[in-house]
Design goal:
Layout (H helix, E strand, L loop, with lengths): L1 H20 L3 E10 L3 E5 L5 E5 L5 E4 L8 E2 L10 E9 L2 E9 L14
Parallel strand pairs: 4-7
Antiparallel strand pairs: 1-2, 1-6, 2-3, 4-5, 6-7
């Protein structure tokens, strides 16, 4: 009985976590292209996903051990950075709600075009 209760509790936790994200899509990978309108992300399986940026897109820099990160801006994005993007599907497009990324590091990261 105790094992069944634990199994039900675990299933409930996962169901709540999945529901909390609703229709959002997560795009994780490395920035390949950055422009003020769209970013291209190369995912771990080698696919390149384009995500449109909006005036409402929130940028968060994850640095150190802070779980929430700190506020950032578009100009902080650079090719070569690892990102996690929370996006909303709109037709065939993905519109970024939030872009989380680490600080640019090494020679691989370069500033976005137009800046």
């Amino acid at each position: 009985m105790r094992v069944r209760s634990i199994a039900v509790l675990i299933a409930l936790v996962f169901a709540v976590a999945a529901y909390a994200h609703g229709d959002k899509v997560h795009v994780m990978g490395t920035l390949e292209k950055v422009s003020p309108e769209v970013v291209s992300v190369k995912t771990s399986d080698g696919k390149v996903v384009e995500v449109k940026l909006a005036t409402t897109t929130v940028y968060v820099m994850s640095a150190g051990k802070s779980k929430n990160g700190s506020p950032a801006k578009f100009e902080d994005l650079a090719v070569g950075q690892k990102v996690v993007i929370h996006a909303t599907p709109k037709g065939t497009d993905l519109i970024a709600d939030e872009v989380k990324f680490g600080p640019a590091g090494g020679s691989a990261a370069t500033k976005p075009a137009g800046n």
